[in-house]
Amino acid sequence: MFVGFSAAFAQNPGVHARELFYTPVPEIVQPQATPTKAPDKAADNTKKTAPKHVPPPDASGRPLFTMAVSSAPLGLRYSVLKRDEAGKFQEVNPDANFHSGDRIRVQVETNSSGYLYVVSQGSSGAWKLLFPSPEVAGGSNLIEKGDTRVLPSAGDNGWWRFTDQVGVEKLFVVLTRQPEPDLDKLIYSMGASQSDGNAPRTLLAQATVSDDLIARLRQQVSSRDLVFEKVDSDAAGKVEKAAYVVNPSVLPDSRLVVDVSLKHN
Length: 265
Fold this sequence. Notes:
The structure is a single chain. The protein is mostly beta strands. It has helices at about 5-10, 15-20, 180-185, 210-220, and strands at about 75-85, 90, 95-100, 105-110, 115-120, 125-130, 140-145, 150, 160, 165-175, 210, 225-235, 240-245, 255-265. The longest helix has 9 residues, at about 210-220. It is globular and about 45 Å long.
């Protein structure tokens, strides 16, 4: 029987997304076998078969086998940064209503290595690629544990500026442990896969994503499989205004999807 983080989470569903994001998964090690005393040959000359070690049973009476587990749940932290009067970008409530002239960034951080995709929906209704970007890591969307990405990139003036037009800017974020083939075929030339290190990979300009693909990606992850938490605190002199989304699964094909809406009026 394999003992992993998902099972532990199922037993304690009250844990919050922020805690899952930052708390390292304890390593579960295989129990050591109890040493077996060697038989006394002088006292017993009968032929005996060497004893076999059987792991101790679990509650159901079945032998318990465990393996080392070091994988963490797949987690994403995102925050909306607004430029203040001093020209600095500060975290604000992600659900805030923004106004004409506001300059906005979105910051994304992961707790595990994976592949990040971000598309945005403009006033035309079309979904366009926002990340990966040619200005960041040569167009690669591989993101390592603890890495941070700020959107839009410096090549796009480094922020969004809201105009007088009222509406909602939508971002769709996908984080996966393995590359997403359907997206890779759209955004990289020749449909090269991330797993093929020898294939040439060039980020396509002005890549668009269909509504059907967005819907299909959403359906691949049920909201019931994800843990959400919004943090709006000013404790111990540290202000944090962010949202956490975590998939507790430690499987190699784990993924999560997030819809981010920026409202302006």
